[in-house]
Amino acid sequence: QVQLVESGGGLVQAGGSLRLTCAASRRSVSSINMGWFRQIPGKEREFVAGQRWIGSSSLTLLNSYAEFVKARFTISRDSAKNTLYLQMNNLKPEDTAVYYCALSTKAYVSRRADEYDYWGQGTQVTVSS
After folding, report:
1. Left (φ > 0), alpha (ψ -120 to 50) or beta: where does 49 sit?
2. pLDDT at res. 61
3. 54 vs 30, 48, 110, 119, CA distance in Å?
4. Reduced to 3 states, what is the DSSP secondary structure of residue 113?
5. DSSP-derived 3-state class of residue 28
6. Those residues with Cβ within 8 angstroms of residue 83's Cβ, 6 or more apart along the chain or in another chain
7. By C-alpha distance, which of 103, 124, 112 is closest to 32?
């Protein structure tokens, strides 16, 4: 069983920045995909960014971003800490949502929420205008 714990959400003004953190309880020796999703009440969970981790090495292959966050958000990791980050810059009011970290064992970085096996509890991000 894998546990994912997000942190770093909060209230920020438009144009500001936040960094979300996702701590994973254990690391599989096989390749996995880590992703960030977000959800607004009444809407489906949507893909934000994803990253593929290769085996037990620190090698990362393929960062994938939703079109609406390109050049503003950056996904990264600390392999020694089994921690995933999402640096969010130039935040907009429409970025307001609950942000979730997720883990998938698929052989590719999926943008579909139903292809992820483990989820964190979510962290609220609110951007005021």
Report:
1. beta
2. 66
3. 7, 20, 15, 20
4. helix
5. coil
6. 21, 22, 23, 24, 77
7. 103
Phi, psi of 71 (to 5 degrees): 75, -5
Q: Which tokens go with 26?
A: 């254990």
Distances in Å between the alpha carbon of 85 and those of 14, 17, 39, 41, 102? Answer: 20, 13, 18, 23, 12
Cα 61 from Cα 98, distance rounded (Å): 26
Alpha-carbon distance 44 to 86, whole Å? 20
Q: Binning pLDDT at 50, 70 and 90, where does residue 68 land?
A: very high
For residue 58, what pLDDT is reported? Answer: 58
| Position 32, amino acid | I
**Selection from 10-14, 40-44, 55-59 with the highest mean pLDDT:** 10-14
